[in-house]
Amino acid sequence: MDPTRTGPTRTRSTTPPGVGVSGSDRPRLAAHVRLTFSRTRQRKALLHPETVVVLNGSGAAILELCDGRHTVAEIVTELGARYETVPDDEVRQFLARLVARRWVELTDG
Fold first, then answer.
1. Which pLDDT tens digit goes with each residue over 3-38?
2. For domain 26-103, which CATH number applies: 1.20.120.10, 3.50.50.60, 1.10.10.10, 1.10.10.1150?
3. Over the stretch 95-107, which tens digit does the pLDDT of each residue have?
4. Cα separation, 30 vs 34, whole angstroms
């Protein structure tokens, strides 16, 4: 299932397979994706047309900071201030998977 983009965007919409997310990239949710709180599940969820992804705490914390203003490096720093350890490579891998699914878009930092 490969969603189509809606509306114009000034960002690169995909990262080719094997290409990583850099620390200077500024991630944001794609226009057709929404982060919300599911009262039924009592957890954050990512809503995508015909798909609901229930997030764990760390996934929700990362996506809450994906507003197009924070760089990936700033997201890692912010999460490091909240929690004891935040593996930089795991944050990048998580974002890379969401970029590959076109749920997150990156702007060049």
1. 333 333 334 444 444 457 999 999 999 999 999 999
2. 1.10.10.1150
3. 999 999 999 999 8
4. 8
Q: How many CB atoms lie within 10 A of CB 14?
A: 14
Burial class (CB in 10 A: 0-12, 13-18, 19+), 96: buried
Angle at 96 between CA 25 and CA 21, to 5 degrees: 30
Query: Which one, of 30, 4, 31, lies nearest residue 99 by Cα?
Result: 30
